[in-house]
């Protein structure tokens, strides 16, 4: 039960991380123009992202322009694009594999340890996707901070950390945490459970049945311990089984049953 709860929590964290990564990849709020100085009235605000650059004016106009040339972009921006896209693709694959491998689903039922292995593989994909999404976020954050504190750059060319950097950081951590939970639940199931165990059968004595039939007759006689006949304590239990040996059967037939109050229970197993 604990591993199933960990799997569900890891799955939802991975799903949340994938959605946040998609939002951070699409929106242009990676770098926002810094308003430095005593003038608090700003007419234009510039924003940069992975795919476009936008301008927001004080009149309410919002204009965006995508980058026209792919080869003319800086190498760090191209690498950030590739890493974020690969992270999203790996997250989608991890979600599909987690649906197949989690205990709360009926997929791959009765396949032994394959189901838990699929869940563990999905956890590894979530970990990889979160790590790949963390690289461009940390890289861009480092560049923005280094540029902001560089004295040779004018104030109009300096940028601050955008909202997408915070969203991307939280999404990457959520994906890595969800992948870790899925991997841990898989390891717990393989170590302790080794698959689902079914309950045992009925607590009847095991023995061979009658030849030619599948039923076995068991006769049990319980004597009243307060009554004694002929100096013999009748508290002892006499148990006759049809699958017993020939000698015990002759001994029971030759003995004469005392006339004492008791209960005779005969069942068919």
Helix and strand string, N-terminal first? HEEEEHHEHEEEEHE
Residue-averaged pLDDT: 74
* Number of H/I helices: 5
The oligomeric state is single chain
- Distance, first to last CA: 35 Å
Largest sheet: 5 strands, antiparallel
Main β-sheet, spatial strand arrangement: 4-3-2-1-5
Instruction: Provide the helix percentage.
Output: 40-55%
Number of strands: 10
How big a fraction of the residues is strand? 15-25%
Low-confidence spans: pLDDT under 50, at least 5 residues?
192-219, 227-257
Radius of gyration: 38 Å
Principal-axes geometry comes out as elongated
Give the structural class. Answer: alpha+beta
What does this structure look like?
The protein has 269 residues and is α+β, with helices and mostly antiparallel strands. Helix content is 47%, strand content 16%. It is built from 5 helices and 10 strands; from the N terminus they run αββββααβαββββαβ. The protein has helices at 2-26, 75-101, 114-148, 163-193, 246-254; strands at residues 31-33, 44-48, 52-57, 62-66, 159-161, 217-223, 228-229, 232-233, 238-241, 262-268. The strands form 3 sheets. The chain has a 5-stranded antiparallel beta sheet with strand order 4-3-2-1-5. Strand 7 and strand 8 form a beta hairpin. Helix 1 runs antiparallel to helix 2 (75-101), helix 1 (2-26) packs antiparallel against helix 4 and helix 3 packs antiparallel against helix 4. The protein starts with a helix and ends with a strand.
């Amino acid at each position: 039960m604990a591993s199933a709860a960990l799997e569900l929590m890891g799955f939802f964290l991975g799903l949340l991380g994938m959605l946040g990564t998609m939002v951070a990849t699409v929106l242009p709020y990676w770098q926002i123009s810094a308003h430095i100085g005593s003038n608090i009235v700003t007419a234009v605000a510039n924003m940069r992202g992975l795919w476009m650059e936008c301008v927001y004016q004080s009149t309410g106009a919002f204009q965006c322009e995508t980058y026209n040339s792919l080869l003319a972009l800086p190498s760090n921006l191209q690498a950030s694009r590739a890493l974020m896209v690969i992270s999203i693709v790996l997250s989608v694959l991890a979600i599909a594999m987690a649906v197949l491998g989690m205990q709360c689903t009926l997929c791959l039922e009765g396949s032994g340890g394959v189901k838990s292995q699929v869940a563990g593989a999905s956890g590894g994909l979530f970990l990889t996707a979160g790590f790949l999404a963390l690289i461009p976020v940390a890289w861009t954050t480092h560049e923005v901070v280094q540029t902001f504190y560089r004295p040779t750059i004018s104030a109009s060319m300096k940028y601050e950390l955008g909202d997408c950097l915070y969203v991307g950081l939280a999404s990457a951590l959520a994906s890595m945490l969800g992948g870790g939970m899925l991997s841990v639940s898989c390891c717990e199931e393989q170590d302790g459970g080794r698959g689902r165990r079914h309950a045992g059968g009925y607590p009847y004595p095991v023995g061979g049945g009658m030849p030619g039939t599948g039923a076995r007759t068991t006769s049990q006689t319980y004597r009243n311990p307060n009554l004694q006949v002929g100096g013999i304590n009748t508290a002892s239990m006499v148990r006759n089984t049809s699958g017993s040996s020939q000698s015990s059967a002759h001994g029971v037939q030759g003995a004469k049953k005392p006339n004492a109050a008791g209960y005779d229970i005969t069942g068919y197993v």
